[in-house]
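Before relying on records like the one below, remember that each one covers exactly one chain. Contacts with other chains, cofactors or solvent are not represented anywhere in the record.
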Amino acid sequence: MKITKIETIICNARMRNWIFVKVLTDQPGLFGWGEATLEWHTRAVVGAIEDISPLLIGEDPRRIEYLWQMMYRQHFWHGNGVVRGTAISGIDLALWDILGKLKDTPCHQLWGGPVRDYVRLYCHLGGGKMEDYYETKPDDAKRFGELAQEVVEAGFTAFKSMPVPETMPIEGLKPIRYAEACVEAMRDAVGENVDIMVDCHARPSPRMGMLFAKALEPYGLYFFEEPCWPEVYEDIAAIQKSVSTPIATGERLIGIHAFRDLLACGGCSIIQPDITHCGGLSEARRIASLAEAYRVAMAPHNPQGPVSTAASLELGFATPSYIICEAVHQDVPWRKDIVSWGFEVEKTGRIVRPNTKPGLGVEIDEKEVAKHPFKQELPQRSYYADGAIGDW
């Protein structure tokens, strides 16, 4: 059995272009689906996949680890950059999909079988709409409370929000009080039996991140995400040690070595590798094993398309430390039109039962995807009040 071709298929989904990867073989009808979505870098990732493909054409797709090492270690530059890591990830997902189809079993069965009966989903407050997720308006606290009620009524028992505003490296009390008011409104709206996550998007400085973490600690957050730049492990660790709130980070880290350094300094309670960036399912499983040694939980970053979600769920059913799956459920109204699933999603509690189809349990309708061709993502810029460049 040989790999004959690797294709990329782009689908514009408003906030980002989904990059689907299709690995074809010389066996009729046998191919695998992966995803290599990377916002604002679509052309770069497609080019990286084209650069890697000659290493794999003619190789046996069942030799997944061998091919992963080939992609990572050849061409002199190791695959730790986000573009190369995303390209490797997309292909790796497709290889696991092929192996599951060959064995006629879901991927989680290849990894030892399910360790749980279901995986819980959480959504983004505002349903993934950019204008709701990022824009600030008057009376925001009330708006956050209303949006929180809406997602709970939709069946979710957990949601992520972004009430921490952009701040300069050091600011006074105004942004702190703003965040407190918004989180208080959400907690009042949904009560104590719904889990609230707050994502800082790694925009605060380490000191501002510490102040936000301490201010929001009384509201019992499920986790507090990326309170400062992920590169400064010691500062994240200091925040982690200063509050009882679990700190989550890792969506922008590529490869096991970055997570090794993060975990070694006690940087978080929850790691969030992105399966479409970190090195695919092969590397995500190694990262999960490393986190298990530190007794740290796992909740992968997953705001992308349906193949990414399928891969995250498959990993969740076979990973003991996995706690919850991110899901964007209302980014585009036609999401369900392009995909068929092997998963059963229950609206009450928004929980997912194990996949029943082979591989990743997902198939993409290429004719439907063709209705949504590539479009350049909207450029996002962020400035501080004095005109200096901020972190978006």
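The chain has 13 helices and 15 strands.
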